[in-house]
Amino acid sequence: MVQKRRRGAELEQAIYQAALQLLKTKGFLSFNFADVADLANTSKSVIYRRWQTPFSLAIAAIQDKITSENHGRTDDFTLTGHSLREDLLQLLQRFIISMQTFKDFRITELLGEATKEENTTIQQLMSDGNAIDLNALDHILTRAKKRGEIVKTDLPEEIALLPFDWLRFQLFTNQPLTERKLELLVDDVLLPIYQSKSRSD
């Protein structure tokens, strides 16, 4: 029986699934196009045409998993909170899930082996991620204002991104992230900042 030739999204998903399986079982140090092609039942040339390096394929596969399992990016999922506090908790919980996926696939090992060219990819990845996080925060603050909550919206970007940076550090250094810690972050740090008056008020 002649095997059906896969194309487009179907082929891409087969490659991503093979890549994720190899990353989880062998790690990035042993990750290569030949093994991915063999497991995905395709050719190396197909993979070479789509991704320049194993590193770029690994990042793409992890990002695809995060997006599909989270039903979208952190700035386009449906918020169901009835207050700024509830929305912030939902956003940060979603962010933790995304970062945990990177951790599950040995992202620290991957980053440690990045070349100079791949570091450029990492910087772009971080920049894109920051833009998504800031957009998600803007959406949350807009919702809060529509509910009549008084919120501060003029924070510098580096301050607005602090909770994401802190959560990323906690996860990648294997610190326990309990629900209580998340509530303290929101109640004792973020809400006082967002609900404080601007200097011009």
UniProtKB/TrEMBL annotation:
Q: Does the keyword RNA-binding apply?
A: no
Determine the domain of life of the protein's source. Bacteria
GO MF term (any one): DNA binding
Give the keywords, sorted.
Answer: DNA-binding, Transcription, Transcription regulation
Give the Gene3D superfamilies listed for this entry: Homeodomain-like (1.10.10.60), Tetracycline Repressor, domain 2 (1.10.357.10)
List, for all copies, the residue spans of the domain called HTH tetR-type: 9-69
Pfam name, any one = TetR_C_11
Q: Which InterPro entries match?
A: Homeodomain-like_sf, HTH_TetR, Tet_transcr_reg_TetR-rel_C_sf, TetR_C
Q: Which residues bind DNA?
A: 32-51
Q: What is this protein called?
A: Transcriptional regulator
Its taxonomic path starts at: Bacteria, Bacillati, Bacillota, Bacilli, Lactobacillales
